[in-house]
Design brief:
single chain; alpha/beta; Rossmann fold; 2 domains; six-stranded mixed beta sheet; 14 helices; binds guanosine-5'-diphosphate; binds magnesium ion
Length: about 425
C-alpha cells in the first residue's frame, strides 16, 4: 500500500491513513452509508426498507457477521454486524471497520422498545458526534421498531430519555414493519407514519453534503499528517545538528587535550634524558651483578619511572574522555593486558632511544596522537553517539519517504 511509508513513521495514524486510502479510492459510487448499533435492533431490515429490496439478511439471531454491501441509487449501502459482540471479536472489528473507515454517513440504530441507550451505545454515539465535529462525517440517529411501543406517550418518554443522554441529538423514529405493510397495501398514510419517507428525505439532504464533507475530511487529515511529519522532521534535524556538533566539540577537546598531555610528558622525559650522562642501559649486566646496584640498573629504573609517569598522565586523560579499555574484539584473556596504554606504548621501555622515539620526535608524537584517537573513537560513548547519529539520519530518510508517499493520497487536480 502506498501509505506504508507514512504509517512506518506515524504508526498512531494508521486509521486516518486507512480512511485517506478510502477517500482516495477512485470509482463509483463514492458514498457509503452504513448502519451501526446493537444486535437485533433492526439494522438490516432498516437498510432493506430504505433500499426497497430485501438485500440483507434479517433474523432474530446474530445474522450479520461479515460486512455485506449493495449498490443502489449510486450509494453503497453497508450492513455491519451488531456491536454487543464480545469485546475485540471479529464482529466488532467488522463493525468498527464499517463505521470508521468506510462510511460517509452512519445510521446509528437503536430499538425504541429498549428504552434509553446503554453505556456502550451512549459512548459510541458521543464518539461519533465528536468525530463528526472534526471530520464533518454525518451520523443520523434512527429510533427503530416504534410499532413495538404502546402509544405516542411511550414514544415521547423514550425520546426524552435519549435526548437527556445525548443532548441535541435529532431522533428519526421509524417502523420498518409499518412501512412494509404500507407499501404492500399501497397505504400512503401508513407509509408516511412509518417515518421511513422522512428518514429518506433526511438522508437525501445528508447525501448532498457528502462531497463537501469528504473534501473537508481529506484536507483535514492530510494537513494534520503533513504538519506532524514536518514537526517530526524539524525535531530530527535539530537532534542531528546537535549530535554532530557534540561529536565535533568532543573530538576537538580530545585532540587538543591529548596533544597538551603528550607534549608535557615529552618535555619531562627530554629533561630527564638530558640530565643523564653516559648511556648505561645498553651495557648488559654480568652474573656477578645479579645482586648489585649497577649503573645500568639505575638508568633503566630512571627510564621506567619517567615512562610510567607519562603513562599515568595519558591514562588519566583518556579515562576522563571515556577511553577505559580496549574494544571487545581486541581484548585478550590476560585482563591486565587489555589497556589502551599497553596496546599503544608496549609493555615496558628500557632504552633511551625508545623513549626518545616515542615522545621526543615529532613522528613519534604524531603516532601516539593517532593511535590514542583511534581508541577514543572506539570507546563506548563515542560509538553510542555514532549509532545515535545513524539512527537519526535513518529517521530523516524515513520521513522523506513518507513525504514522497503523500501525493498518492492527495486529490487529483
Ligand atoms: N416489530 C418490528 N420488528 C422489527 C422491525 N425492524 C426489525 N424487526 C425485527 O427485529 C429482528 C432483528 O432485525 P434485524 O434487522 O435482523 O436486526 P439487526 O441484527 O440489527 O440487523 C428481526 O426479527 C426483525 O424482523 C420493526 O420495525 N418492527
Ligand atoms: Mg443484521
Amino acid at each position: 500500500m502506498s501509505n506504508t511509508p507514512i504509517a512506518a513513521v506515524l504508526p498512531h495514524r494508521a486509521h486516518d491513513l486507512a480512511r485517506l486510502q478510502t477517500l482516495a479510492r477512485n470509482g463509483e459510487p463514492d458514498v457509503t452509508i452504513t448502519v451501526i448499533g446493537k444486535y437485533n435492533h433492526g439494522k438490516s431490515r432498516l437498510l432493506n426498507e430504505l433500499i426497497g429490496q430485501d438485500v440483507f439478511a434479517v433474523a432474530d439471531r446474530r445474522e450479520t457477521v461479515q460486512l455485506a454491501d449493495t449498490v443502489q441509487r449510486n450509494v453503497r449501502w453497508l450492513d455491519a454486524p451488531g456491536l454487543d459482540a464480545d469485546v475485540g471479536s471479529e464482529d466488532d472489528r467488522h463493525a468498527f471497520h464499517a463505521a470508521w473507515l468506510e462510511s460517509d454517513i452512519r445510521l446509528f440504530v437503536h430499538a425504541a422498545k429498549e428504552g434509553e441507550l446503554d453505556a456502550k451505545e451512549r459512548e459510541l454515539l458521543l464518539e461519533l458526534h465528536a468525530d463528526g465535529a472534526r471530520t464533518q462525517r454525518q451520523t443520523v440517529f434512527v429510533l427503530t421498531q416504534i410499532d413495538q411501543l404502546a402509544d405516542d406517550t411511550e414514544l415521547d418518554k423514550v425520546r426524552e430519555a435519549i435526548v437527556r443522554q445525548a443532548p441535541g441529538v435529532v431522533l428519526n423514529a421509524v417502523s420498518a414493519t409499518r412501512h412494509r405493510k404500507g407499501v404492500e397495501g399501497a397505504k400512503l398514510l401508513m407509509q408516511e407514519r412509518s417515518g421511513i419517507p422522512a428518514l429518506q428525505a433526511t438522508l437525501d439532504a445528508a447525501l448532498g453534503n457528502v462531497p463537501q464533507a469528504r473534501a473537508h475530511e481529506r484536507a483535514l487529515l492530510l494537513d494534520e499528517i503533513r504538519a506532524e511529519l514536518n514537526q517530526f522532521r524539524d525535531q530530527c534535524e535539530a537532534t542531528l545538528a546537535s549530535s554532530l556538533q557534540t561529536q565535533l566539540d568532543q573530538r576537538q577537546a580530545f585532540d587538543s587535550g591529548l596533544q597538551a598531555v603528550i607534549e608535557q610528558s615529552a618535555v619531562k622525559i627530554e629533561t630527564m634524558l638530558d640530565s643523564l650522562g653516559e648511556d648505561h642501559a645498553i651495557k648488559p649486566d654480568t652474573a656477578k651483578d645479579a645482586y648489585a646496584l649497577t649503573a645500568g640498573k639505575l638508568e633503566r629504573a630512571h627510564i621506567q619511572i619517567a615512562y610510567s609517569r607519562a603513562c599515568i598522565e595519558i591514562d588519566g586523560f583518556l579515562a576522563g574522555h571515556g577511553v577505559v579499555g580496549l574494544p571487545g574484539e581486541q581484548q585478550t584473556a590476560a585482563r591486565s593486558l587489555n589497556s589502551v596504554m599497553i596496546a599503544v606504548l608496549g609493555v615496558s621501555v628500557k632504552f633511551r632511544k625508545d623513549l626518545r622515539r616515542m615522545f621526543c620526535e615529532a613522528a613519534g608524537r604524531t603516532r601516539l596522537q593517532e593511535q590514542f584517537t583511534h581508541y577514543y573513537e572506539l570507546s563506548a560513548d563515542r560509538q553510542a553517539l555514532v549509532a545515535q547519529i545513524e539512527h537519526t539520519t535513518e529517521a530523516i530518510a524515513a520521513i522523506e519517504r513518507a513525504f514522497a508517499a503523500l501525493p498518492a493520497l492527495e486529490p487529483r487536480t
